Amino acid sequence: MKPAPLTVLLLPLFLALASAQCPNPADIKDDEGVKVCARMFEDSSPYYDQCCGGKYLDARPGDDMPYIPLGWNNRISSLVVATRCELTVWSKSGKGGNMRRFNSGIQYRLKELKQGLLGNWDNAISSYYCKCN
């Protein structure tokens, strides 16, 4: 039996990426059409097409939040940072604990990003700062 060509093996991955519900970093805007610096989602999934789900929190350019809005502490599981923007997050309120910077792009699953020796960034964001050029 012949091995399957690489394109056949990678096709499901490409289809999953193409159908992901995460917004394009160049397209994230609020309901009034104003550019958003980053959009943080409460849900992620092992499947790309089910990431960036549930409720979301928008960070506007220049937002400096040492205390994340009520109901969002340690709830963010995926995020999208707009083109030409950068999101800095901390694991503790008051910009304490571990810190990580995200440049423009999509982070489908924060649980894939290490935080310290044993932890990850899934449901671990407690403060943030977002800036755009």
Mean pLDDT: 88
Shape category: globular
**Separation of termini?**
54 Å
- The quaternary organization reads as single chain
- Helix % is under 10%
Low-confidence parts lasting 5 or more residues at pLDDT below 50?
Answer: 7-19
Beta percentage is 35-45%
Largest sheet: 6 strands, antiparallel
What is the number of helical segments per DSSP (H or I, 4+ residues)?
A: 1
- The number of distinct β-strands equals 8
Q: How large, in whole angstroms, is the Cα Rg?
A: 16 Å
Function: Functions in exocytosis in pancreatic acinar cells regulating the fusion of zymogen granules with each other. May have a pore-forming activity on membranes and regulate exocytosis in other exocrine tissues.
InterPro entries: Syncollin
Pfam families: Syncollin
Keywords: Cytoplasmic vesicle, Disulfide bond, Exocytosis, Membrane, Signal
Any overview of this molecule?
- Functions in exocytosis in pancreatic acinar cells regulating the fusion of zymogen granules with each other. May have a pore-forming activity on membranes and regulate exocytosis in other exocrine tissues.
- InterPro entries: Syncollin.
- This is Syncollin.
- Keywords: Cytoplasmic vesicle, Disulfide bond, Exocytosis, Membrane, Signal.
- The protein has one helix spanning 6-18, and strands at 38-43, 53-59, 64-65, 78-92, 96-107, 114-115, 119-120, 127-132.
- It is mainly beta and 133 residues long.
- Helices cover 10% and strands 39% of the residues.
- The strands form 2 sheets. Strands 1, 2, 3, 4, 5 and 8 form a 6-stranded antiparallel β-sheet that branches. It has a two-stranded antiparallel sheet with strand order 6-7.
- It contains 1 helix and 8 strands; from the N terminus they run H-E-E-E-E-E-E-E-E.
